[in-house]
Design a protein that fits this description.
The chain is mainly α. It has one domain. Helix content is 74%, strand content 0%. α1 runs antiparallel to α3. The chain is rod-shaped and about 120 Å long.
């Protein structure tokens, strides 16, 4: 399994860039033109590794962003729930206001 550390992946990316540059310099010194550089199997393999590493970095960054969003959402939820509990505790500790019985103004009809 590959490294899940962004720092390690950045180092891998730099390593692939250096290997690609060395291979291109070697082939150029031998007189190989640009078309053959693009077709070279070793360069293609190194570029694939470079692209894999770049995608891994993007994945790690996205995962870290999602994790930080979830942590902030949980922290906000805890704060709001604590606030609601305090309000409930206050309202429960106070006696609820007594309802006054309202006498109806109408009198019951009498049977005559």
């Amino acid at each position: 399994m590959g490294s899940q550390s962004e720092k390690t992946r950045q180092l891998q990316k730099i390593h692939f860039q250096q290997l690609i540059a060395k291979r291109q310099d070697l082939l150029r010194s031998k007189g190989v033109d640009e078309e053959h550089l693009k077709k070279d199997a070793i360069i293609k393999h190194l570029q694939a590794g470079f692209e894999r590493t770049a995608r891994a970095i993007a994945s790690i960054t996205a995962r870290e962003r999602i994790i930080s969003n979830v942590k902030t959402q949980k922290a906000n939820a805890v704060k709001t729930s604590e606030g609601k509990e305090k309000i409930r505790a206050k309202s429960e500790s106070e006696e609820p206001p007594k309802k006054k019985k309202v006498k109806s103004a109408r009198k019951a009809p009498t049977a005559e």
